[in-house]
Amino acid sequence: MATTRVAVLHSLIPNPPGVAGPDRVPEILLLLRRRLWSMKKDALLEPALSRNRRWIVNNQIKNLLLRSPGRTATVRSLQKRFKTFDLQGRALNWLRKYPCCFDTLSGPAGPDGGGGEELRFTFSKRMAALVDEEESVKEASEPAMARRLAKLLMLSRDRRLNVVKLNELKRNFGFPDDYVLRLIPKHPEIFRVINRTGRQNAMEIELLRWDPNLAISAVEAAAIDRGTEPRYVCSLPETWFKTREKFDEFNDATPYVSPYSEDRTESEKRAVGVVHEILSLSLWKKASILKLEHFKREFGLPVRLNLLLLRHPCIFYVSNRYKIYTVVLREAYNGSELIDKDPLVVVKDKLGELMQEGLHEYNRRRHLANLGKKRKRGEIDLTPKKEEDDENEEEASRLDTVEKREERIRFYKVLFDEKP
């Protein structure tokens, strides 16, 4: 059957010159696979998937400074790490691009610096204030982080998750790098760390106590606020008639299945509920599909998770922007703006704005410096030439008069079928 399908597709799509028929089949299958992985682009939601590579690099530099004594490090040490950041060039030039974020200064050389002084860098005053604000927000958000972690463990089949796998999604849920050391010891009655095999990558976090107050999904909480039965919400326009009809059939065919229910029978409605709840627990209400697939066994997700998501465009939006397949919870966004922002998201947005402001300031200074060099070389003459301006005005006035005269001739010719 599959061979017949490939043969039909091969007959419909002509081969390019110089390519034999059998060599064309893998490319066709690849195209079909890509079509099964993404949806039609949503111009409103696509900006929500934008990734600023500069912001990612600066965030790594920020973490490097936080781990350094006195929040100060040598430019030489940053230069050594440039390849791990996938960057080339001089580290000092990168720091100078963001004067609002980083300051450079001379300081004592490190133990391997050969003595004397060398160039160091640290946070600017504004950046340091935002970093302190971020750290205070993290401390204040620890109870929310613990609840988020508990709900994730309650979603899993065995009430435990592998730490290595969970690290892949820790950014999505706002967990810090040291969340195991920060959260687990403070809640010994809820969590514990186990390692049943003794291997380093087999460490797991286990839930010790089930909390019925946390076993309420985002769909159920919204239904309680509305005073209705729990059901999914369609976030597509009213003009999508056929899609909305299928969505209503899915919604009304069987009652809503809570992802926290004891009934672990595999069904499409429960799988949709699990993905919906995972995205609701994340800070940005989106996640990489490939990373979610790592938890198929723990969360009881289907083998072809992408097909499940594509069958429900009213709830999820699937995009392959930057060649990273991402699923977004539609109802969490108003256009490209996240509706309910976590305090951690707010402070990270401030950091991003400051980094962007620093880049604009650097580009402005560089533009002015280049203009000054061109003026010295005589390549730019900023004095206005009055004679040329007067000639241009006269030429414009003459053309305007000619155009008006020709327009009058055409008008009267049409009106009287003769020239005036």
TrEMBL record:
Ranges annotated as biased composition (Basic and acidic residues): 378-387
GO molecular function, one term: RNA binding
Pfam families: PORR
Region (Disordered) residue spans: 375-399
Highest taxon of source: Eukaryota
Domain PORR: 40-359
UniProt protein name: (wild Malaysian banana) hypothetical protein
Organism: Musa acuminata subsp. malaccensis (Wild banana)
Phylogenetic lineage: Eukaryota, Viridiplantae, Streptophyta, Embryophyta, Tracheophyta
